[in-house]
From TrEMBL:
<protein>
    <submittedName>
        <fullName>Solute carrier family 25 member 28</fullName>
    </submittedName>
</protein>
<dbReference type="InterPro" id="IPR018108">
    <property type="entry name" value="MCP_transmembrane"/>
</dbReference>
<feature type="repeat" description="Solcar">
    <location>
        <begin position="116"/>
        <end position="209"/>
    </location>
</feature>
<keyword id="KW-0408">Iron</keyword>
<comment type="similarity">
    <text>Belongs to the mitochondrial carrier (TC 2.A.29) family.</text>
</comment>
<keyword id="KW-0472">Membrane</keyword>
<keyword id="KW-0812">Transmembrane</keyword>
<keyword id="KW-0410">Iron transport</keyword>
<feature type="repeat" description="Solcar">
    <location>
        <begin position="25"/>
        <end position="109"/>
    </location>
</feature>
<comment type="function">
    <text>Mitochondrial iron transporter that mediates iron uptake. Probably required for heme synthesis of hemoproteins and Fe-S cluster assembly in non-erythroid cells.</text>
</comment>
<keyword id="KW-1133">Transmembrane helix</keyword>
<keyword id="KW-0496">Mitochondrion</keyword>
<keyword id="KW-0999">Mitochondrion inner membrane</keyword>
<dbReference type="GO" id="GO:0005743">
    <property type="term" value="C:mitochondrial inner membrane"/>
</dbReference>
<dbReference type="Pfam" id="PF00153">
    <property type="entry name" value="Mito_carr"/>
</dbReference>
<keyword id="KW-0406">Ion transport</keyword>
<dbReference type="GO" id="GO:0015093">
    <property type="term" value="F:ferrous iron transmembrane transporter activity"/>
</dbReference>
Length: 221
């Protein structure tokens, strides 16, 4: 498979040829592919996120997923499943940008030779996830509010419904001030650190194995 240095987690394997440099054209195609992937992924997963968060709410009236889906559809319409879609995209794009940039920066510091080094991949992945999670917590708070439509926030909202990121930002500030934007930041960071550390470690491991086998097949010809 085609590998390029600027792609996520592309560290060289011991004894293997280095990856070709990332060109401007390939960088643009990679960015476009990432944007399209995020659009499709969030379009499919946003309704699932809405249902999950409503069932996780304290004193949630829903016992089953089907009950939650039917209630949301009946009371708020299909649009409720995508009320936070734009916010989700607004959050995911900077999250992934910060995530990958931080990982690549840390790899340059901890593993400049870009060899397969599980320790550096775990540390870089965990730190990258922590930085990205902390930086995008305000967007995550607004997304959760849009998905759950919490009664406390609704009581402070004149329209009775919270729609759109701008409305959510104003409502969060009205309810809890500036500190409300970072409510749950520690839990979010703690959640993301092992998640991104495992993801990068698994990615780097399989990339190393597959690349090594590819090199061995080429050498055997």
């Amino acid at each position: 498979p085609l590998l390029w240095r600027g792609a996520p987690g592309l560290s060289g394997a011991p004894g293997l040829s280095p990856s070709p440099p990332l060109t401007c054209v390939s960088s643009c195609f990679t960015g476009a592919a990432g944007c399209v992937a995020t659009l499709l992924h969030d379009a499919a997963m946003n309704p699932v996120e809405v249902v999950k968060q409503r069932m996780q709410m304290y004193n949630s009236p829903y016992q089953r997923v089907t009950d939650c889906v039917r209630a949301v559809w009946r009371n708020e319409g299909a649009g409720a499943f995508y009320r936070s879609y734009t916010t989700q995209l607004t959050m995911n794009i900077p999250f992934q940008a910060i995530h990958f940039m931080t990982y690549e920066f840390l790899q340059e510091q901890l593993n400049p030779q870009r060899q397969y080094n599980p320790g550096s991949h775990v540390v870089s992945g965990a730190c990258a996830g922590a930085v990205a999670a902390a930086a995008t917590t305000p967007l995550d708070v607004c997304k959760t509010l849009l998905n759950t439509q919490e009664s406390l926030a609704l009581n402070s909202n004149i329209s009775g419904h919270i729609t759109g990121m701008a409305n959510a930002f104003r409502t969060v500030y009205r309810v809890g001030g500036v500190t409300a934007y970072f409510r749950g930041v520690q839990a979010r960071v703690i959640y993301q650190m092992p998640s991104t550390a495992i993801a990068w470690s698994v990615y780097e491991f399989f990339k190393y194995i597959l690349t090594k086998r590819q090199e061995e097949r080429r050498a055997g010809k």
